[in-house]
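hey so i finally got around to running the thing on that chain from the lab meeting. sorry it took forever, my laptop kept dying and i had to restart like 3 times. anyway pasting the input first so we r on the same page abt which one it is
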Amino acid sequence: MPAEPIRAQRLSLESVTKVYGGRGRARSGGKRAVDQVSFAIEPGTSLGLIGQSGSGKTTLARMITAIDRPTSGAILLGDTRVDQLGRRDLRRYRRDVQFVFQDPYAALNPASRIGYILGRPLANYLNVPVGQVGGQVRELLAKVGLTPPEQFEQKLPHQLSGGQRQRVVIARALASRPRLIVADEPVSMLDVSLRAGILTLLRELRESDGISLLYITHDLLSARAVADELVVLQDGRVVERGPARQVLQHPGHEYTRRLIEALPQSVTRRS
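ok and heres what got predicted. didnt touch it at all, straight out
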């Protein structure tokens, strides 16, 4: 696949709020899933978004990937207001911001072969000629550690292990040469023995390709492996943020301290 410089830009959230239900423009009486959240992901860096179930993590992911729009506040990629994009511009944005889903078993069409699954974004987003798609599919498979790639491109998803499927999901996200990958609990459905390999892959891809990473999880242990910075959410609000090492060693909020206390002592000593 020809090398292409990453079109690095800062992703920033400014006082983003999401309210479900309610009345009027202010959604009076609705459920406030995300409340005045602000943070930024600098080009080529990784940010861990931490919180328990119901804290607003996936709601934020859906807004960042333009599946949902915020009730108020702004999401920007560079100077572009993501939350105000029209249909035509959304297509370009979704090339630049790719989602890695939690469940690798549900994320892939069971009737499509791996080569076809990876070939669609190459054709749709990059207009790769038909004669070149196969070679670029094999390069993607090799990049995510599925080698020799010829053994994988003709397989169906059910013929792969969970870890292999998640590598295919990551390869599909890489196919459009994105600026940012949003990974929502990407190892929570995998056996413990497979998780380290996926986390290492995400870290190596960020370092080698310069792609920014938003890593969403309830698990501080896995976030520690990939994130430069941490943002901790509780009930839709940011309660703590800072460099990963600082947050782990000197947590400033009781909620963060409780999350860290749940980790094995050997992990916290190495942080």
